[in-house]
Amino acid sequence: MYDLVVKNALICDGSGTPARPGAVAVADGRIVAVDGDVGPARETVDAGGLVLAPGIIDSHTHYDAQITWDPMVDPSPALGVTSVVIGCCGFTIAPCKPGDRDRTLRNLTHVEGMSLDALRAGVRWDFETYPEYLAMLERRGVGPNIAAFIGHSSIRTWVMGDDASERAATDAEIAAMADIVRDGMRNGALGFSTSTFEGHNGENGVPMPSQLADERELRALTRAMGESGRGIFMLTKGSRTDIAFLESLAADSGRPVMVAALLHNNIQPKRVFEELANIGAARQRGREVYGQVSCCPLTMEFTLKSPYLMESLPGWKPAMAAHDPEALKRVYADPSFRAGVKDDLDNPGGKVRVFNGDWDKITVVETANPASRGAEGRSVAALAREAGKHPLDWFLDFGLEENLETMFTSLLLNSDEEAVGRMLNDRNTSIALSDAGAHLTFFCDAGFGLHLLGHWVRDVGALSLEQAVHELTRAPADIYRIADRGRIAPGAWADMILFDPATIGRKPSRRVFDLPAGAPRLTADPVGLHGVWVNGHRVADETGVIAGDDRPGRVIRDFAA
Question: How many helices (H) and strands (E) does the chain have?
Answer without folding.
Answer: 17, 25
